[in-house]
Specification:
The structure is a homodimer. By secondary structure, chain A is of the alpha/beta class. Chain A is built from 11 helices and 11 strands. Chain A starts with a strand and ends with a strand.
Chain lengths: ~230, ~230
Amino acid sequence: MNIGILGTGMVGQAIGGKLSELGHNVTIGTRDVAGTLAKTERTPMGMPPYSAWQKEHPNVLLATFADAAAFGELLFNCTSGMVSLEVLKLAGEKNLGSKILVDVSNPLDVSKGIPPSLSVCNTDSLGELIQRTFPALKVVKALNTTNATVMVNPRSVANGDHSLFICGNDVEAKRAVKDLLASFGWNLDHVLDLGDITNARGTEMILPLWVRLYGLFQSPMFQFKIVR
Amino acid sequence: MNIGILGTGMVGQAIGGKLSELGHNVTIGTRDVAGTLAKTERTPMGMPPYSAWQKEHPNVLLATFADAAAFGELLFNCTSGMVSLEVLKLAGEKNLGSKILVDVSNPLDVSKGIPPSLSVCNTDSLGELIQRTFPALKVVKALNTTNATVMVNPRSVANGDHSLFICGNDVEAKRAVKDLLASFGWNLDHVLDLGDITNARGTEMILPLWVRLYGLFQSPMFQFKIVR
């Protein structure tokens, strides 16, 4: 499948790399292609520059947000939640069309200090904001409660014995995303479909606890598991 | 130990009953003692009236919020989060003193529809509000992510193999609460101490997901487990 990824960070790289490895055609979108490739210093998070990752993934293309969105039959939003709406506008409503958008982002706002708060929550969510702004898009919230490494290698924590939450308004879109998740290695018995996109409030709002557990463990290699 | 419980609902009954069974002297506080005992109809949640429970627990005393707070060397806040601050004011700053208050409540607000939103979250929490309002009190947030049955019988879900979150500013107070949790049957290896009371933001904010999972499973008998 042709898949467009919005965002060149840790999450975009993890998902883009995995999809390419699985045989999909992947184009990653960025604001400024030449600028992204020209960076040679490590990111503020200590990651190697995108250009280093790109050299190891020659089959993955880099393009503008608009070109990546036009390229993909299915899209992933892997941008920081604080800029997701702006990026989707740059991608362009015409290019987004009525495609499936897997929304992996979280509205984490570090501007008020660490640990971050959420820029939207409680009576709304980023998933809902995106769905309302682009009503034709089939937004499926998924993978946002999970570290990038675990997203594409669920067995890297507790041998894969943990839970993933998914929600969205379109049943067929959720089915397609579950197929992709299964190809990433997720056991679909562990994927809990909460219902429509308003349930993104629930999954985005566990991020404050996620961030605190990251602090406690000094590692992002943990997962929520729902036991009954 | 003499323990005061604020709130006669499902949570107050579960914790009060367990503490009494463990040999503690328990007084439960309510707004209007005669009124609470006079009720003969089931609660809006379908529970038997308090008086029926009281008959089965003759060792547990019922008193005003102020008298229950004065009685307890250690207190539990088992009221609905929307009225917790009001109840604590009725209990009286003098009676609360510098005691340990185990805050089990959540600021669930059903006035804007179901599933409920939170009346405070993100950059504040009910745990912090209570701590700020009564600075001498040693507030320990615990058990608020757990159904009442599971609180006092952790093995009732997944044979006890799940996580509990605890936070508060006073290390000695948290130690005393952990001792009580152990007496309830909690494996302390599963009790994650997140740090100071600001971490109540994290644990209260998973309630919106908890409520949605309750809807999905049509049962409150599930738990969050953190796996690594």
